[in-house]
Design goal:
The chain contains 2 helices and no strands. The chain is mainly alpha-helical.
């Protein structure tokens, strides 16, 4: 499938703090906020998710 796509977009790697901030912004856009006691749980989820392959259905980064 990748050979059928003419263009490839490379985005910078986001760090945990970046993704947590993006998550907070997205939550706020819907009129919600996370309770203070949920912050460690949310951060832990983001950290674990970053260790898994295919975050957001993207191929893993190449080693080149």
């Amino acid at each position: 499938m990748m050979e059928r796509i003419a263009h490839r977009l490379d985005f910078p790697t986001f760090e945990v703090d970046d993704l947590v901030a993006i998550g907070h912004r997205m939550i706020a856009e819907h009129g919600y906020e996370l309770a203070a006691e949920t912050e460690p749980v949310f951060r832990s989820y983001v950290e674990r998710r970053l260790e898994q392959p295919h975050l957001a259905d993207t191929p893993p980064p190449s080693d080149d």
